[in-house]
Specification:
The complex is a heterodimer of chains A (498) and B (367). With 498 residues, chain A is mainly beta. Chain A is built from three helices and 20 strands. Chain A has an 18-stranded antiparallel beta barrel. In chain A, a hairpin with a 3-residue loop joins strand 8 and strand 9. The longest helix of chain A has 8 residues. Chain A is globular, with a radius of gyration of 23 Å. Chain B has two helices and 24 strands. Chain B has a twelve-stranded mixed sheet with strand order 22-21-19-12-14-18-17-16-10-9-23-24. In chain B, strands 1, 2, 3, 4, 5, 6, 7 and 8 form an eight-stranded mixed sheet that branches. In chain B, strands 11-15 form a two-stranded antiparallel sheet. The chains are: A mainly beta (498), B mainly beta (367). At the A-B interface, strand 7, strand 8, strand 9, strand 10 and strand 11 of A face helix 1 of B.
Chain lengths: 498, 367
């Protein structure tokens, strides 16, 4: 049941319930609502790739050509961070705890009058503790195929990630952009069957934005992405590898040998259209429509350089998002966001051409934020959000059929201000509730979170910031109440570029 | 300017074509929607008041496929039913006690029942009274204990007398069959002359067939150890076989261990100079009466009391003659410390696939 509900919740960033949960902890500092700190309107936020530009064609609409519009100044950011997450109530193959440390370096530069360049490098190390059996780095992608051994153990992952975006205007009123991202992740299970995972991902997108009548922007972008995970378990200390390949939750075939291998190949394409109205300084409207299709294959080697497809899953997703912001007076602002999407997926057993799982997921999510300046150096905000979703799942092979209608709401309050002219502070707290949690299968989930961010700006313009956020959630499961927690620590060193 | 706009349009067309282009069709049939009904009947035509076939209520029905095993029980009409079954090829065995005689079992099997998707399949399993000789190979421990220095010398074979009468081991032979690889394979009837070929090791109990010096009492387990010593002294994760009932001893080997307190089975192949050791994950073990001891031309199938074939992969090629064993059992991983044992002591339908299971630890003497 739990896995059935997992659906593709983690599949499409920003599309499924996972993002809904994340939206509860959206930091106000990530938005342009942030007030000037230390004499400069920075709006810098530790959790965002491009600080202070949430209402941007790249950041919001995902069009790489929009980088030129989003960036107003250049800088270099160095961001080490740490994360610790406990899962008292997780799904079968979820880790009990996740510890992660990463190092990010990002440079953003203006190129000429209308160009921009972004380069990013990240190196991360992650430890997933007490994983029961699962050998896939991401077992819950929305497909019914799992590979597992018989031992509970820890996984260690590490690897680099690089990204480049270039945006430029070849002619007046037309901007083009190109983005490419590549990552490699190396994982190793620390007990039998000592599975070794190598995940390679590449993501490339290109886009164009047309500037019409001095107030309207029309954008079009296209993205392709591909990743492959290779899992190999080898005989250890003379002990053969014993691995189960699940098709659904109940049925598995057994494979054994001195070496057992499997590949999970994911590939897809996405097309997106964006539009923005910038006619007024006090009112901005932006929206996009995005559709993508993704294929996931589970491949098993059958002979040297030959492999057969054991399972196949197809995902389709359509999403629309509208974001508006009003500046009602010099000290009062309001922002509204409406996001709706629909996903569907089906999976087949390739050799027999039989359907084993299909599901669909629809949601509507709305967020309303108001911010008011209480003085020249202090400001408060209030945010509320509401989400409704519907899930239909038919897992034929397990004979499990599920329909779920869920309501989720949340609210948070916070403030930001400047102390002693060089110290900036942001704090916030909030909570939320979910009627039926589709991820872990519990009901009446509650969530509490708190965060704070401290900044110090030197005279030279160098800024150092530290952020800590803590999220705790309680889930009413059939066998009791379980609590999960998530702690995040980030430090940011910002070097301004002239 | 114009080429740029044209290029943009072409680019858009290519992207859209790539996005909406090749896609796979969703299957029209779903898995997990099949229905299987097995009717277990026994032939009662020899009974005076019988009309022919009678349902066997309460029969235990074991369904096996690529997804493992499922067990069900027949209702009062002899029907065992599975709904929402995944499409696969199934093998079935049904078993029930014979009324009035605990030494006889009603046993029936069906092989390779094809269950297509979204179908309803009805099959009849005819069970027949099966009286085994009562002497079976009950457990084979071949995998070796958990270790990292290739230790597997604690192997043993366990025999069991499931009958109500005392059996005698005099002159019986225990063989490993792994040869004949150039022909039909180990244990196959090469030349169709009624014997199995490929004997590589043959050890014999003392005495001659028909003599009554080495009894095995009703419901008694007998352990035949490769080496009857406490192997824990060498490998802490191993087992103590110093109290085994019998020990394989190769008198042609200068190195084989011999526990003087445990009687020996001795080697009858002088060209073999190592102990009786079987493959860790794939082999054939045969127990015969010893009436045909000329191993070189094959062992007469009529003299075989029991035989078990085991392999590490469910897709391995079965080679042992089906008159001796209709299936093979899946072995545990090498050096796992696991063992293969009959589901119940003496449970024998002449199909090791269905009769045996993997147990987490060896149980010499059914401890």
């Amino acid at each position: 049941m739990k896995k059935a509900f997992a659906l593709a919740l983690m599949m499409y960033a920003g599309s499924a319930f996972g993002s809904g949960l994340d939206s509860l902890v959206t930091l106000p500092a990530c938005s342009d609502l942030a007030i000037p700190i230390a004499g400069e309107k920075t709006g810098d936020c530790l959790q965002m790739l491009l600080p202070g530009v949430q209402l941007g064609l790249y950041t919001f609409g995902g069009n790489p050509a929009g980088l030129s519009f989003d960036v107003t100044r250049g800088y270099v950011h160095i961001t080490p961070s740490g994360r610790d997450m406990f899962n008292d109530l997780g799904r079968l193959f979820d880790p009990h705890e996740v510890q992660e440390a990463s190092f990010n370096a990002l440079t953003l530069q203006r190129i000429g009058e209308s160009g921009a360049f972004l380069g990013r490098f990240k190196y991360y190390g992650m430890k997933e503790l007490k994983i029961l059996g699962s050998l896939r780095s991401q077992p819950y992608l929305g497909d019914p195929f799992f590979i597992s051994d018989t031992s509970e153990g820890d996984y260690r992952y590490y690897g680099p990630e690089v990204q480049f975006i270039h945006s430029f205007s070849p002619v007046r009123n037309l901007t083009l952009g190109l983005a490419i991202e590549y990552s490699v992740s190396d994982g190793l299970k620390d007990v039998y069957s000592r599975a070794h995972n190598v995940v390679r991902s590449v993501d490339a997108s290109t886009g164009a934005i047309l500037y019409v009548n001095g107030c309207m922007l029309y954008g079009l972008s296209f993205r392709v992405y591909s990743s492959q995970e290779r899992i190999e378990s080898k005989m250890e200390e003379l002990l053969d590898v014993d691995v189960f390949t699940y098709r659904g939750d109940l049925y598995a075939t057994r494979r054994r040998g001195q070496s057992v291998e499997e590949k999970i190949r994911l590939s897809g394409a996405e097309i997106s259209m964006q539009a923005a109205n910038l006619s007024s300084e006090n009112f901005t409207l932006m929206g996009y429509l995005r559709g993508n299709r993704t294929e996931l294959q589970t491949l098993i080697p059958t002979a040297f350089l030959k492999e057969s497809e054991d399972g196949y899953t197809q995902f389709e997703h359509l999403q629309g998002d509208v974001l508006a912001r009003w500046r009602l007076s010099h000290n009062f602002e309001m922002s509204g966001n409406l996001n709706a999407g629909a996903s569907s997926s089906w999976s087949e057993l390739s050799a027999k051409k039989l359907l084993i799982w299909e599901w669909s997921y629809q949601y509507v999510h709305g967020t309303l934020t108001v911010a008011r300046s209480v003085s020249d150096e202090a400001r408060m905000f209030l945010q509320g959000n509401l989400r409704v979703c519907a899930i239909d799942s038919s897992k034929y092979i397990d004979s499990r059929f599920t329909q779920l209608r869920s309501l989720q709401f949340g609210a948070q309050i916070g403030a930001e201000g400047t102390l002693l002219s060089r110290v900036g502070v942001r704090v916030g707290l909030g909570g939320g509730a979910i009627k039926a949690d589709p991820v872990v299968g519990g009901n009446d989930a509650r969530r509490f979170f708190a965060w704070s961010e401290w900044q110090y700006q030197f005279e030279s313009g160098i800024r150092i910031a530290a952020m800590y956020s803590y999220v705790k959630s309680w889930v009413h499961a059939p066998n009791g109440i379980f609590a999960n927690s998530n702690s995040l620590v980030q430090i940011l060193v910002s070097l301004p570029q002239r | 300017m114009r080429p740029l706009y044209i290029g943009f349009v072409i680019w858009l067309a290519v992207c859209s074509g790539a996005f909406w282009g090749c896609t796979r069709e969703k299957p029209t049939q779903a898995d997990g929607t099949s229905h299987l009904v097995l009717v277990v009947l026994s032939d009662t035509s020899s009974d005076r008041d019988s009309t022919g076939y009678a349902p066997v209520s309460g029969a235990k029905v074991i369904l096996s496929s690529e997804y493992g095993m499922r067990i069900g029980y027949a209702d009062e009409f002899g029907r065992a039913e599975w709904t929402s079954l995944p499409s696969s090829e199934y093998s079935v065995t049904a078993r029930a006690p014979y009324p009035g005689d605990p030494t006889i079992q009603l046993v029936g099997t069906l092989e390779k029942i094809e269950v297509p998707p979204a179908s309803s399949v009805v099959e009849t399993v005819l069970v027949e009274p099966t009286s085994s000789t009562g002497l079976v190979i009950n457990e084979i421990y071949s995998s070796g204990p958990v270790n990292n220095f290739f230790f597997f010398f604690d192997q043993f074979i366990e025999l069991y007398n499931s009958s109500d009468e005392t059996k005698y081991l005099d002159g019986m032979m225990v063989m490993r069959v792994s040869g004949n690889n150039d022909g039909k394979g180990p244990g196959a009837d090469e030349g169709n002359d009624g014997d199995i070929d490929g004997v590589t090791y043959a050890f014999k109990f003392p005495g001659k067939p028909g003599e009554h010096n080495y009894p095995i009492r009703p419901r008694q387990f007998v352990v035949l150890a490769s080496d009857a010593v406490d192997h824990r002294k060498t490998c802490p994760t191993s087992i103590d076989l110093s109290h085994a009932d019998w020990e394989f001893y190769n008198q042609y080997s200068a190195e084989d261990i011999d526990n003087p307190n445990v009687p020996n089975l001795i080697n009858i192949r002088s060209d073999r100079t190592t102990d009786f050791l079987i493959n860790l994950v794939g082999d054939i073990v045969v127990l015969s009466s010893g009436e045909d001891s000329v191993w070189s031309d094959g062992i007469d199938i009529r003299t075989i009391i029991d035989a078990v074939e085991y392999h590490g992969s469910p897709t391995a090629r079965k080679t042992l003659d089906p008159r001796v064993d209709r299936g093979f059992t899946l072995s545990p991983p090498r050096y796992s410390g696991m063992s293969m044992q009959r589901r119940e002591p003496g449970y024998d339908t002449n199909n090791s696939t269905l009769d045996f299971e993997i147990i987490p630890h060896p149980t010499p003497g059914y401890q």
